């Protein structure tokens, strides 16, 4: 994935989608859901997915935010086919198109000051009218324009069509029609000549041959303006699909201000990328009643016809459940690689983890874990030191049971080292001391792995190894 300042020539008729984030804050799950659907649609249709960084808000944009966008997409394996393109690198192109519009009389200079605009809006609101620019500087046949004020740099406004409607068939919201008289003449270049958002977006979508714009419904109000600019440039607009908002657990719009986490934090907390894709897919799209599905199934099933119209609400407990299902189904060797990375973050050396046990440890414990972090906590017991839970130690490792523990330690010192032999050693000690399995297994678990509740004790002990077990049992 490289920065590209020139756009390629796409194949005619090929589906092309885009994700166009603004790097003014970290990317959260609500944002990345808006990337997931255009990525999935492009993949499902054999098309192209384009990444465009809309960084024209120079004061608020940051490279750190760009890096989190790229890291998040890399983690989720949602790499674009083209891009990232940066709007700030395309200013010459925007200015050239502005000159074309000037030449055709479709833009005009407006000298109305901000103070005059504010006064106009106040007057309109007092009269219970919709606040909007009133066309003072719009040139019309026979109209006398005001005298140009001295020393004022004008903005450029787009001559929006008058009369009629602008309409589109939204793939989520259905038919939308807006009267042109509801739209004022949009500012498309600032006094310093810098083009504005709605204009840049249209030029980009034309140059990048975008066929489908799948984005959040906070952009619905921009769409009629953008459609009119497309047509002014002699182009038909793309197909639009405006996605409902993702709400947080409190029912508010998901945002950094409302406590949303960066996407990369879920990576660090031990979530699986395929589980995250599965969960995010269901935040606004469905395939019957299917809750758990693979990435391949999602791409096979995905289309724009089953996007939901209602806002979806994030539920971290549901995300954990989805992650747990994917974790249980994951190949043990692949899972071990992820758990190894978590263990190395905790200070264990890669060489210490290369003894071949980790895939078997993952297989043994993954059914009781919902993240790779939780799985790493179990796995760490097999490589580092253990501090038994004090309450469980007092409850289970009593003076009455210590002779049986010592006898087990002696028996384990000489038996064959496999599950069957370890199980036989337990049965021998239980019979000799007149005990039931839980009376001995619980204290042994506390001493060897720190807690009384684990999978099958013989499987756990086999993976721990003879020497480690003898040391830990003797410490009891």
TrEMBL record:
Aminoacyl-tRNA synthetase class I anticodon-binding domain span: 343-475
InterPro entries, A to Z: aa-tRNA-synth_I_cd-bd, aa-tRNA-synth_I_codon-bd_sub2, aa-tRNA-synth_I_CS, aa_tRNA-synth_I_cd-bd_sf, Glu-tRNA-ligase_bac/mito, Glu/Gln-tRNA-synth, Glu/Gln-tRNA-synth_Ib_cat-dom, GluQ/Sye
GO MF annotation terms: ATP binding; glutamate-tRNA ligase activity; tRNA binding; zinc ion binding
Catalytic activity: tRNA(Glu) + L-glutamate + ATP = L-glutamyl-tRNA(Glu) + AMP + diphosphate
Coiled-coil spans in chain: none
Record: residues binding ATP: 256
Motif 'KMSKS' region: where in chain: 253-257
Motif ('HIGH' region) on chain: 21-31
GO biological process assignments: glutamyl-tRNA aminoacylation
Compartments, record wording: Cytoplasm
Oligomer and partners: Monomer.
Protein role: Catalyzes the attachment of glutamate to tRNA(Glu) in a two-step reaction: glutamate is first activated by ATP to form Glu-AMP and then transferred to the acceptor end of tRNA(Glu).
Protein's UniProt name: Glutamate--tRNA ligase
Gene: gltX
């Amino acid at each position: 994935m490289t920065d590209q300042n020139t756009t390629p020539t796409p194949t005619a008729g090929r589906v092309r989608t885009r994700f166009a984030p603004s790097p003014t804050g970290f990317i959260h799950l609500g944002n990345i859901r808006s990337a997931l659907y255009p990525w999935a649609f492009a993949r499902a249709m054999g098309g192209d997915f384009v990444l465009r960084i809309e960084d024209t808000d120079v004061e608020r944009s940051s490279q750190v935010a760009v890096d989190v966008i790229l890291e998040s997409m890399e983690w989720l394996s949602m790499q674009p086919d083209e891009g990232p393109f940066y709007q700030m690198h395309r200013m010459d192109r925007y200015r050239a198109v502005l000159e074309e519009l000037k030449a055709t009389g479709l833009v005009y200079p407006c000298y109305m000051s901000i103070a005059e605009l504010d006064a106009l809006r106040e007057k309109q609101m007092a009269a219970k009218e919709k606040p909007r620019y009133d066309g003072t500087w719009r040139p019309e046949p026979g109209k006398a324009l005001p005298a140009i004020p001295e020393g004022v740099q004008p903005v450029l406004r787009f001559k929006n069509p008058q009369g009629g409607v602008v309409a589109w068939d939204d793939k989520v919201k259905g038919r939308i029609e807006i009267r042109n008289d509801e739209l004022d003449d949009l500012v498309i270049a600032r006094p310093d000549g810098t083009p504005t958002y709605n204009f840049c977006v249209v030029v980009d979508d034309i140059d990048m041959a975008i066929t489908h714009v799948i984005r959040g419904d906070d952009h619905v109000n921009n769409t009629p303006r953008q459609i009119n600019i497309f047509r002014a440039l002699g182009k038909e607009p793309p197909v639009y699909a405006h996605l409902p908002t993702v709400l947080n657990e409190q029912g508010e719009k998901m945002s950094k201000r409302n406590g949303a986490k960066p996407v990369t934090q879920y990576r660090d907390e031990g979530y699986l990328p395929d589980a995250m894709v599965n969960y995010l897919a269901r935040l606004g799209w469905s395939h019957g009643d299917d809750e758990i599905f693979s990435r391949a199934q999602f791409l096979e099933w995905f289309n724009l016809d089953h996007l939901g119209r209602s806002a979806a609400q994030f539920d971290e407990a549901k995300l954990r459940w989805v992650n747990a299902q994917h974790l249980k189904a994951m190949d043990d060797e692949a899972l071990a690689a992820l758990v190894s990375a978590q263990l190395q973050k905790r200070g264990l050396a890669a060489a210490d983890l290369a003894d071949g046990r980790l895939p078997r440890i993952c297989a043994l414990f993954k059914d009781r874990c919902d993240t790779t972090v939780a799985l790493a906590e179990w796995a760490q017991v097999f490589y580092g030191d253990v501090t038994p839970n004090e309450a469980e130690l007092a409850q289970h490792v009593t003076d009455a049971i210590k002779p049986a523990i010592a006898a087990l330690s002696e028996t384990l010192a000489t038996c064959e080292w496999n599950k069957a032999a370890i199980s036989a050693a337990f049965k021998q000690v239980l019979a000799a001391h007149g005990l039931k399995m839980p009376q001995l297994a619980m204290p042994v678990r506390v001493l060897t792995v720190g807690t009384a509740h684990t999978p099958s004790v013989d499987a756990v002990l086999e993976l721990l190894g003879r020497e480690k077990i003898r040391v830990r049992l003797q410490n009891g």
